[in-house]
């Protein structure tokens, strides 16, 4: 279903968003939240419920775009967005430690997992770690080589994965270990509308999560003309993407910070980058499913660790840090919340904090008016 999301939602969303670079995919927060919401259904019902959930998310997003609710994101402090985006970047990095080291902590929180990994260094799989480290080193080195840097991610992924059969590594898992990859394109399906009543609440929550994430991307990546994207139109684009996703059995999707950074890092110059991403997904499914299965999970983890690090904008953090003590506190609070609570609650916390600070500042503002009487 994740592959089907890239195949259908990503290119359709690219046609309608205002943001040229925004990659629309099922992010970790969206996928995890959607998965937990579908657990109440039986295994046979979940695919049907998933299609309806994605469709309802599309309806809510389209409504938000048509009503031009993008202006609401203006009330979200830049410090909150910076703290949230930085937290997501750290979460991306920490979320790869299991595949990167071969040690899978039993804890749920990513920060606790990282600490647990450090406390169990003796249980790290050296074969897995070598593949991951080679991936990171190759990306960093090749990124400094002219002309080659645009293909640094692909070359590093291929070379590091090739180490597994060449060196006879037996404990480094491959993508194929996650399950069989599809070998044909999905057929359009009509969602079973009988599931709608039970999925309205979950769909609304997912919509808020997705739109809050995308609003941060809109502020982080300006268009080639130097202008910031229209957030309301981005809402429409994500709605259209989810309509396509619902028809082709995709997961709920929204703006992906990691995916956007990956495209920009790869040299994206227009919205065609996202369109070709969907086309390439179809080609991969039809022709190269076997080769995709041979990619080492540690190599993918290394690639995502680099991407996660690159989403952390230290210059922007420094600007917020020196703006004011209030901005500094907002950024730190949102960052910490992103690390210790589920992302959807971190978003709600940051939004609520922004509105509270806005209301306080408005209530504290004072206007002095002088009234003068005319002699006439």
Can you describe this structure?
There is one protein chain. With 376 residues, this protein is mainly α. It is 64% helix and 2% strand. The protein is built from 17 helices and two strands. The protein has helices at residues 2-16, 28-37, 46-66, 78-94, 97-101, 110-119, 126-142, 152-166, 196-220, 231-247, 257-265, 272-287, 289-292, 297-310, 314-321, 325-340, 343-364, and strands at residues 23-25, 254-256. The protein has a two-stranded antiparallel ribbon with strand order 1-2. Helix 2 runs antiparallel to helix 9 (196-220), helix 4 (78-94) crosses helix 9 (196-220) and helix 11 (257-265) packs across helix 14 (297-310). The longest helix has 25 residues, at 196-220. The chain is globular.
What's the total number of strands?
2
Q: Please outline the major beta sheet.
A: 2 strands, antiparallel
Beta content comes to under 5%
Count helical runs.
17
Q: Which helices and strands occur, and which strands form pairs?
A:
Blueprint: H1 2-16, E1 23-25, H2 28-37, H3 46-66, H4 78-94, H5 97-101, H6 110-119, H7 126-142, H8 152-166, H9 196-220, H10 231-247, E2 254-256, H11 257-265, H12 272-287, H13 289-292, H14 297-310, H15 314-321, H16 325-340, H17 343-364
Antiparallel strand pairs: 1-2
Helix pairs in contact: 1-10, 1-12, 2-9, 3-9, 3-10, 4-9, 4-14, 4-16, 4-17, 7-8, 7-14, 8-14, 9-10, 9-17, 11-14, 16-17
């Amino acid at each position: 279903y994740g592959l089907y999301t890239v195949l259908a939602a990503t290119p359709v969303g690219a046609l309608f968003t205002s943001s040229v670079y925004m990659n629309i995919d099922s992010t970790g927060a969206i996928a995890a939240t959607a998965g937990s919401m579908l657990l109440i259904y039986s295994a046979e019902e979940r695919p049907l419920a998933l299609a309806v959930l994605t469709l309802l998310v599309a309806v809510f997003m389209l409504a938000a775009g048509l009503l031009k609710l993008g202006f609401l994101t203006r009330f979200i402090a830049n410090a909150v967005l910076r703290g949230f985006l930085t937290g997501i970047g750290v979460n991306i990095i920490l979320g790869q430690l299991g595949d990167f080291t071969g040690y899978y902590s039993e804890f749920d929180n990513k920060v606790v997992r990282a600490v647990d990994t450090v406390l169990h260094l003796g249980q790290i799989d050296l074969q897995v770690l070598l593949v991951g480290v080679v991936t990171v080193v190759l990306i960093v080195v090749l990124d400094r080589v002219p002309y080659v840097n645009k293909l640094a991610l692909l070359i590093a992924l291929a070379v590091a994965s090739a180490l597994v059969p060449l060196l006879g590594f037996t404990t480094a898992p491959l993508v194929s270990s996650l399950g069989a990859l599809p070998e044909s394109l999905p057929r359009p399906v009509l969602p079973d509308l009988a599931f709608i009543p039970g999925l309205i609440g979950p769909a609304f929550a997912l919509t808020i999560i997705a739109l809050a994430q995308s609003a941060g991307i809109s502020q982080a990546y300006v268009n080639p003309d130097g202008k910031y994207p229209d957030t309301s139109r981005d809402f429409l684009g994500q709605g259209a993407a989810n309509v396509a996703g619902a028809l082709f059995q995709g997961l709920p999707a929204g703006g992906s910070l990691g995916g956007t950074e990956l495209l920009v890092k790869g040299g994206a110059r227009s919205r065609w980058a996202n369109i070709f991403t969907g086309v390439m997904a179809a080609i991969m499914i039809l022709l190269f499913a076997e080769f995709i299965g041979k990619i080492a999970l540690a190599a993918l983890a290394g690639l995502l660790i680099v991407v996660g690090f690159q989403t952390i904008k230290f210059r922007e953090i420094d600007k917020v840090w020196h703006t004011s003590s209030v901005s500094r506190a907002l950024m730190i609070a949102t960052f910490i919340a992103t690390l210790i609570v589920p992302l959807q609650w971190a978003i709600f916390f940051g939004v609520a904090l922004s509105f509270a600070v806005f209301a306080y500042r408005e209530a504290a503002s004072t206007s002095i008016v002088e009234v003068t009487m005319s002699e006439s």
